[in-house]
Amino acid sequence: MIRVSVVGAQGRMGASVVEAVEAADDMELSAKVGEQDDIASITPENTDVAVEFTVPSASLNNVLALVAQGVDVVVGTTGWTDAKLAQVTQALDNGPRAGQAVFIAPNFAISAVLADYFAAKAAPYFTSAEVIELHHPDKVDAPSGTAIHTAQAIAAARAAAGGEPMPDGTQGEAASRGQVIDGVHVHAVRLQGLNAHEEVLLGNTGEQLVIRADSFERSSFMPGVLLAVRTLAGGGHAGLTVGLDAFLDL
Amino acid sequence: MIRVSVVGAQGRMGASVVEAVEAADDMELSAKVGEQDDIASITPENTDVAVEFTVPSASLNNVLALVAQGVDVVVGTTGWTDAKLAQVTQALDNGPRAGQAVFIAPNFAISAVLADYFAAKAAPYFTSAEVIELHHPDKVDAPSGTAIHTAQAIAAARAAAGGEPMPDGTQGEAASRGQVIDGVHVHAVRLQGLNAHEEVLLGNTGEQLVIRADSFERSSFMPGVLLAVRTLAGGGHAGLTVGLDAFLDL
Amino acid sequence: MIRVSVVGAQGRMGASVVEAVEAADDMELSAKVGEQDDIASITPENTDVAVEFTVPSASLNNVLALVAQGVDVVVGTTGWTDAKLAQVTQALDNGPRAGQAVFIAPNFAISAVLADYFAAKAAPYFTSAEVIELHHPDKVDAPSGTAIHTAQAIAAARAAAGGEPMPDGTQGEAASRGQVIDGVHVHAVRLQGLNAHEEVLLGNTGEQLVIRADSFERSSFMPGVLLAVRTLAGGGHAGLTVGLDAFLDL
Amino acid sequence: MIRVSVVGAQGRMGASVVEAVEAADDMELSAKVGEQDDIASITPENTDVAVEFTVPSASLNNVLALVAQGVDVVVGTTGWTDAKLAQVTQALDNGPRAGQAVFIAPNFAISAVLADYFAAKAAPYFTSAEVIELHHPDKVDAPSGTAIHTAQAIAAARAAAGGEPMPDGTQGEAASRGQVIDGVHVHAVRLQGLNAHEEVLLGNTGEQLVIRADSFERSSFMPGVLLAVRTLAGGGHAGLTVGLDAFLDL
Fold first, then answer.
1. Quick check: C38 and C12 in contact, CB under 8 A?
2. Quick one: what percent of chain D has pLDDT higher than 90?
C-alpha cells in the first residue's frame, strides 16, 4: 500500500484527493494537513508520497519543507516560476534521502495533457492550426493557461519543422479573430454549464484534425493525481519533473 | 416544368445554378445570360423564374429590369441595403403583371438558415450564448455576415424575452474573447481545408445546446435555390420576400 | 411567491428540486413529502404547485391523490402509458377545482427538448438524418427513450412532407449501422465520464446540420422543472399537458 | 527536382496525383501511365519515384514490374494481403539496385493516420473508448477499413497495458450499440453531404478526449502522397514500409 498524505486537505481539490486516495485499492491515507496543522508531521516514517494542493503563496514553502524532511511530493498548486522551480531543484540536491522526487503538474487532466501533446506532434503536418478553449463564466483569466501552453507548443513544433506562417486573408480590424500567441490564434468561450474544455483544429487542403479535451468536473483530475503518486512511489524519477506527459508512455 | 433563366451564368455560383436546374426533374433551363447578353431577352413568354447571381454593383439594375418585364426573380447576390430593397418594392408595385414576386436570400444553405433560426428560438431559454464561425483562410471579412446576423438575432430574442446580460467573469483585456455584437461574443476561425461553418453554443447550469451548420462546398446552396424557385413558381408570394426561412415551414 | 411542495423529496431528483425551489427568488418550499409521509397534507391551502418525482409504480396514485385534493402537479416520474394518462385526464375532469392542471414531461432538460423539436422541424429539408445518443456506462437501456422519440419524430416529419427513404448503399450485414427506428438509424455510445447527450446529424449534398444536446449533470433538469412550475402557477393550462415543448414559445 | 511517374493516371486518384505533382515546387511529372501503356517505360533513367493508384487486381503486378526495373514505388491501391506483401519483399531483395524501396499506405490522409495513431497512444489511459465513422451514403462497406484498424489498435494498446474490459451496463439486445471489434464498439453513420470522417471518443471519470479526422474531399490524400514521395526520394527507407505513420516524426 502506498501511504499518502494530503497537504491542503480542506480545500476543494485537496478534499477530492482525500476521497480519491481513500477509494484507491493500492493506497492508504496517512495524514490530512490543513492550514492549522504542522506540515512537519509528515515524514518518511508515515508517508510515501505527499500531495500538495494549496495556494501559490504557500506552495513553495510547503514543498521545501517536505523535501527537507525527505518526503516525495506531487504538487497540483499553480503559480510556479523558473525561480521557484530552481529553489525546489536545489532543495532536492540537498535533501536528506537519495533519489528524492518532486513532481509538479500545471494540469492533471489526462485528456488535457494528451490533447496538448498530440496537438504539438501533429502541428508540423498541417497548414493551419487554431485553439478554442471553453470554460464556465466564473473564470477570471482568458485565455486559459493551458490554451496558452498549447498555442506555444504548436508554434514551437512548427518552427522546429521549418513551417511557414499560416494563411489568413482577413483584412482590417477583426476582434473576432481572437488573441494571437506566437502566431497561433486562440479563442476563449465562456458559457454557463461548461467546466473546462479545449479544442485544437488543424487543417490541410481537404482535411481537418480535431483534438478535444473535456474536463466535466473536478474529479477529472484525480486519475492524473493517482498516476503521479504511483509513479513517484515506484521510484526511478529522482529530481524535479514538470508536466504529466513525462509520466505517460508517449 | 418550371422554365428557369440564369442571370450571371458564367460566374461560379451561376454556373452551379445552371447545373442544378439541368439536373432537376421538374425544371428546364430557358436561358443563360452573361455580361455580354441582353437581359431583355428574358420574358414571361420563355421564363417562369429568373435566378440572379451576379455582383452587388449590377444586381439592383438586373432585378429592376426583370421586374419591369414581368419576370419573377430569385436573387442570390449580396449587398442589399434598405434603400435598394425599397426600389425593388416600388418596382413590384408598378410591375406589368399582378402577383409578381422577388425573393432575396443572404444565404441559400438550408443548414445555415435553420441554424440561425433555431439559435434565435432557443436563445431566451439559456443563460449564455456564443457564436463561432469557421471559414477557409481566403475569406477577407471576419466575422462572417451570417455570424453577425445570428448574434443580432440571438440578442434580439433575448431582449424581447426580458433576459439578463450573460455572465462573464473575465478580468482585464482579453482579445481571446472575440468580438462582441449586441452583447453576444463572436469568434472567427480561419483554417485551411474548411469552407463555411457556424456553431452556436447555448448554455444553462448543467446543460448545453449546440447548433452547427456545415457548408462543405458551393453545391450546398443549390437545394435552397431550387426550393426558392419552386416556391415562387407555385405562386402566392407576391411582393418582396427576404430570407429563406420565409419559405420553410417553421 | 409560488408555494411548492415536493413529493419524493428524499430521492435524488426530488432533493435537487428542493434545492432548486429554495434557490428560486419567486418560490418558497411548502412541504417535503417522502414515502413515510401522508400526501394528503398537500392541499391548495398550503401549495400552489406540487412537483412529483418518485417511481413509476407510485406516481399514478400520487398524481390522482393530488388532483382529488385540487392541487396542480408537475410530474417528472417516467413510465406513463396511454391508459395511465387517461386516468389522469378523467381525474382532472372530476377535480374539485375549476381549471386544474397536470403537467408530465419525459425529459426536463431544455436543451434535449429543443434538440428533439428542432430535429423534427429540420428533417423534411434534408436527404439524410441519423441520431447518436451518448450516455454513462451504467445505463441499462439502449437506445435512450429520448433518442427513440427523436427518431420517431424525424420519421413522422419526413413522412408528412412526403419525403423519400434515405440513401444507404451499405451491402451485407452491418451491425455498425445501429438500430433502425422508423427508418432512422440510431447509435448508442456508452462512455465513462459522460452523462446524457444526444446528437442529430442531418445531411444534404454539400451541407450538414448538427443539433446536439448535452446534459452534464442532474442539475440540468431544474430550469425545466422551474419553468413548468411557473407556467402552471400562471394559470391558463387546465387539463393534462405532456412534454416541455408545450410550454416553450416555439 | 524529384521526377515522378504516375501509374493509373486516368483514374480519379491518379489524376489527382498528377495535378498535385505538377503543382509541387520540388517535383516534375515524368510519365503518366494508363491501362494501355507499357509500364516498362518507367525506369530509373526517367523516374525517381513512381506512384501507383490502380485496382487491387492489377497493383501487385505493377509493383513487381517497377521493382524489377529498379524504380522506387509509392502505392495507394488497397487490397494487400500478407502473401502479396511477401512477394513485394522478395522482389525487393532481388532488385537490380541497392536500397530499393516500396511504400504502401492503406490511407494517405494525414489527419486519419494521426487520429488512428493518437487513439492507440491514448487508449491505455482511459476507462472507455468507442469509434464512430461517418461516410457518404454510397459507401458499400460498414464499418470502414480505417475504423476497423482503429478499433483493433485501441484494443491492442489496452491489452498491452493490462487494461480491464470497458464498463457497459446495457441489458438485453441492443442493435444501437454497434459492432464490437476486439471489444471496442464501432458505429457507422451514412449521411448525404459527408465524405470520410472518423471520431474516437475516450472517457474517464469526469473527462473525455475526442480525436476526429475529417477528409472533406479526394484532395485530402495528396499531402500524404507527396510526403511519401519526398521521403522515398530522400533515401534511407530501403525495403517495404507499410503505413504513413512510419514516415511521420511521432
1. no
2. 93
For residue B34, which of B7, B63, B73 has the smallest C-alpha distance? B7
Number of domains observed in the structure of chain A = 2
> Tens digit of pLDDT for each residue in D135-172?
999 999 999 999 999 999 999 999 999 988 999 999 98
Distance CA D37, CA C160 (A): 56
Of A99, A59, A57, A101, the closest CA to residue A76 belongs to A59
Most distant CA atoms of chain B, gap in Å: 65
Per-residue confidence (pLDDT) for residue C173, from 0 to 100: 87
| Mean residue pLDDT across chain B | 95
| Minimum-distance CB partner of B220 among C204, C220, C221 | C204
Looking at chain A, the whole-number percentage of residues with pLDDT higher than 90 is 93
Average pLDDT rounded to a whole number, residues C131-149? 96
Res C236 pLDDT > 90 = no
Is residue A99 domain-shared with residue A119, that is, in the same domain? no
Q: What is the residue whose three cell numbers read 432548486?
A: C20
How close does chain A come to C227, measured CA to CA in Å?
18
Same domain, D206 and D177: yes
Three-class SS of residue B199?
strand
Taking CA–CA distances from D111, the nearest residue in chain B reads B193
**Domain extent for B40:** 2-104+219-247
Q: Are residues B122 and B157 in the same domain?
A: yes
Q: Which residues of chain A make contact with B129, given a CB cutoff of 8 A?
A: 191
**Alpha carbons A248 and A156: distance in angstroms, whole number:** 21
Instruction: Round to whole Å and give the CA distance between B66 and B56.
Output: 16
Burial of D138 from C-beta contacts in 10 A (0-12 / 13-18 / 19+): exposed
Closest-approach residue (CA) in chain C for A192: C220
* Average of per-residue pLDDT across A178-206: 97
Q: Residues of D annotated in the binding site for (S)-2,3,4,5-tetrahydrodipicolinate, as ranges?
A: 136, 145-146
With contact defined as 3+ CB pairs under 8 Å, the chains touching B are A, C, D
ipTM above 0.85, yes or no: yes
Q: Tell me which residue of B33, B91, B41, B100 sits closest to B73, measured CA to CA.
A: B100
C100 and C181, same domain (yes or no): no
Residue A231 has pLDDT above 90, yes or no: yes
Cα D195 from chain centroid? 16
Q: Indicate the Cα dihedral angle A63, A66, A68, A74, nearest 10°.
A: -60
Helix C110-122 with C145-160: angle, nearest 10 deg: 30
Residues A130 and A65 in one domain: no
User: Tens digits of per-residue pLDDT, C25-82?
Assistant: 999 999 999 988 999 999 999 999 999 999 999 999 999 999 999 999 999 998 899 9
CA distance D214 to chain C (A): 13
